[in-house]
Amino acid sequence: MSACARTLCEKVWDAHVVHRLPEGPELLYVDLHLVHEVTSPQAFDGLRLAGRRVRRPELTIATVDHNVPTDDRAFPVAEPVSARQLEALAVNARDFGIELFDLTSPRQGIVHVIGPELGLTQPGMLIVCGDSHTSTHGAFGALAFGIGTSEVEHVLATQCLVASRPKTMEVRVDGALGPGVTAKDLILALIGRIGTAGATGHVIEYTGDAVRLLSMEGRMTVCNMSIEAGARAGMIAPDETTFAYLAGRPRAPDGAGFGRAVERWRALRTDDGAEFDARVTLTATTIAPQVTWGTSPGMVVEITGRVPDPADCASAAERQAAERALQYMNLRPGTPLEGLSIDRVFLGSCTNARIEDLRSAARVVRGRQVASGVRALVVPGSQQVKAQAEAEGLDRVFRAAGFEWRNSGCSMCLGMNPDVLASGERCAATSNRNFEGRQGRGGRTHLMSPAMAAAAGIAGRLVDVRRWSAA
Amino acid sequence: MTPFTRHAGRVAALPRVNVDTDQIVPKQFLKRVERSGFGPVLFHDWRYRGDGSPDPAFELNRPEAAQATLLLAGANFGCGSSREHAVWALREYGFRAVLAESFADIFRANCYQNGLLPVSLGSNEMGELFGRYARAGGRYDLVVDLAAQTVRDEHGFRTGFAIDPYWRDMLLRGLDEIGRTLLEDQRITAYERSRA
User: Which of B21, B24, B33, B191 to mutate to test the interface with A (most CBs of A within 10 A)?
Assistant: First the structure.
């Protein structure tokens, strides 16, 4: 290894070191701080109590997403506790001089959808947000990770974060994904392989032909769920696909500035000979559409697979977790995933609610009807995605099929707003977490790609979308 | 922040792996705009049945766990959502330290920020502690000593643990991280100028 060969992660990290503290961790400068209503009120209160200001309000952007209603957006929202939290963010943004995309803004949306869409997210940046899915922004070659509320307060006050250098992991995906197999299947397959703590302490860099072939939307899906593998962040080196996505975005550099930025961004790649602390290789051609069967994203199998038998688990702890998951999910070992009947479909979340996701689901749905007894919801990731989808007529495709067409927000991914599962309901979801109660107490979540979830809604049961295309 | 030097207390055990922060504080309680009020809803959906009554089968509802201040947990504790509410809830409930084979990164950082000590031990040590807890019928006490970086009981168990030296110092002294970083203001300003 050459002495100065560095990984992408190391390059971005090094460029943001303000100071190395004597005890080891480093003071890092934050280029972009994204703020939402749920994890920020206590941080702003902390600033007030200490008489502190926001150091760089112009590097801080706020939006409302976690608990906004997706049907009636009249303000104040109907639920008083949610209204109080939304109002708190409005007051905090005003008092501290922070730009806020609120419910009246055509740019409002899920924080990890609007950052890239506005061109705020750019290669080489260090981006933080009080939300674990901040890893999404790594799709642009940014180093982006979730932080807690105390750290949100720290970044507001200092524009810096104290952090210890992470380990690096390369996940190389060779070959090309087959028809009907998506970025969601790729990342679920990885989590199934390495486990939900498989990348703890590491920043993953995704490389290989299958990753290069992904659109920016697909790359965001992959980086988004890096946290579900335990990773601190996920990253993909920027390339022509990245630059083409960013060109013309409202907050991206424009004119000659864009060309100069692209020249800088081209250097953001792992040097030949740089070493990773860990390496994992996947073969894209062997990845099938994935479906989770349990209550952790690592509890996942191919759609053609069966619910595993806890007796086959490697350890007692895993066996107990699997037994508990099967009881919660009301499933028996050996049951084929294909054919499992569902009650709800959720097309949404920061993982899979971008325009390409909606197009992919609409292709499956077009000219068909949601199965009787199934309630299906489409929640675009942002108001811009919604407008784009409506311009393409996708809303009419979904509505004609019997889907509800909503306004943007996190919605049923975590059910902080009124969109929740009832106890015992089984849901085909495009979101990122199948934890117990995540979508509603007693609700049963199966994670999958948008096309798979859409097909499940039409069939009323889990189906293999690869055969659907031929049907 | 309350300093953490050495703590002796009653142990509660939650022998489950991958306990995510959605379980520690379910989303319906994240709408509070304060840092307090989360102790009563810690592990809400596990702790209480649908009718609101305590579930006697849940580990923390065992009578001997009532005064617990130390939590033994399975690997990858605190995975999932970044919600610091999970740590606020554990602290407000009365826990001073969580002992597990591993922790999720964001959860660990949130622990440090709130004086809740995350103690990572090897699988053999954790197995031994769960065993001793069970043999003591749940009436089991431990001493967690951050200064000495040891965990011990009164019956011969003793093990060391590793911790980031920065956070060991911050916790021992109970320092406010923002106040500390603001001491570096000149360096931050110099960095900003260098990039302007």
Answer: B33
